[in-house]
Amino acid sequence: MRLADLHLPDAGLRPPGDLAGAPIPLLPDVAWLRTGIVNVVFLGLPEAGDGGWVLVDAGIPGFATHIAHAAARRYGDTRPAAIVLTHGHFDHVGSLRALADRWDVPIYAHPLELPYVTGRAAYPPPDPTVGGGAMARLSPLYPPGPFDFADRVRPLPTDGTVPGAPGWRVQATPGHSPGHVSLVRDADRTVVVGDAFVTTQQESATAVLTQRVELHGPPMYYTCDWDAARESVRDLAALDPSLAITGHGQPMRGDALREQLRAVARDFDHVARPAHGRYARRPAITNESGVVELPPPVPDATSIGIAASAVMVGMLAGSVRRSR
C-alpha cells in the first residue's frame, strides 16, 4: 500500500498559532514542527547548506508542502542529506513519498523496520481495546501498510551513525514497532525518541487536541511488544537526557523530563503497560521478513466504539479545515 492511495491532498495544511510557519528551535541545530497529531524534527544548523541537515520522520498524509515550506524557512533553498525514520507507522511516513521525491534524497530505517516500508509486510494490527480513548478506538481505521518506499529506503548504517548528522548515533528502542529507533547525541544528552515514549496521552483525543504535557509510555494501541518497550524506556532513562523530542506531544527538558521518565521506567508495567489487551502479555513475533506470529485479537472492540471514532475523525478533519 502506498499512502498516496488514501487520496489525501497535499494542501500545505498549517496548524494555528505559533505552529503555522518555521520549525521551532530547541537548540541551535535542533528544531521541531508539529504536523497535525505528530511531530517531525530537523537536525542541523540553519546555515548548514545543501546536504547539511536531516529530517527525522515525515508526518501524516497531506503535510508535505507544509514540511517543505518549514524546511525552506530554516534552511533556505537546500535539500537534506536524508530522511531518517524512527519507525514507519502511517503517521510518521504520511508525507514521506512526496518529500523524498521532491528533494530526491534517500530514506533510512532500521533493518527490522524495512519489511513495513518496502511493501513486503503490514504492521501487527493495532489494539483498539487499550488506552480507553477515541484515538485508540480509531486505530482499526488507520492504514496498516505495507507501505512501499523500496526505491528510496536504505538500512541504517551498522556502525550506529546517523547519515548526514555527525555527532548523533542510533539507539535501537523496539517495542512500539519491531525496528523502532531513537537518535541520541551523547555530547549534550539530547534524544529524539519517536514513539518510544511520548509527552501526551496519545490514546485520548482530548489530550491530543490540548497537548497537555505529561510523560507517558508509547502509544498503547500500536505497541506490539511490551517487554521490549519497557526495556527501551529504561535504556533511554539511563541516558539521563537533558532534552527529549517525542513523536507526539511537546518536547521536554531538564528536571521535569528526567523525573517523569525515571518514574515511568521504574513503574512501567503499572503505569504504561495495559492490564489487558492483545499484546499485553504476548508480543507479536516478528523477524527481518515481517510478522511471524500474532496473539489472538481481544473480542470486545465494539462497533459502538468504532462509530464514535468515526465521529471523532470528522471532528478532527473539521478542525484541520478551519485552521487553513
From TrEMBL:
<protein>
    <submittedName>
        <fullName>MBL fold metallo-hydrolase</fullName>
    </submittedName>
</protein>
<dbReference type="Pfam" id="PF00753">
    <property type="entry name" value="Lactamase_B"/>
</dbReference>
<dbReference type="InterPro" id="IPR050855">
    <property type="entry name" value="NDM-1-like"/>
</dbReference>
<feature type="domain" description="Metallo-beta-lactamase">
    <location>
        <begin position="37"/>
        <end position="248"/>
    </location>
</feature>
<dbReference type="InterPro" id="IPR036866">
    <property type="entry name" value="RibonucZ/Hydroxyglut_hydro"/>
</dbReference>
<dbReference type="InterPro" id="IPR001279">
    <property type="entry name" value="Metallo-B-lactamas"/>
</dbReference>
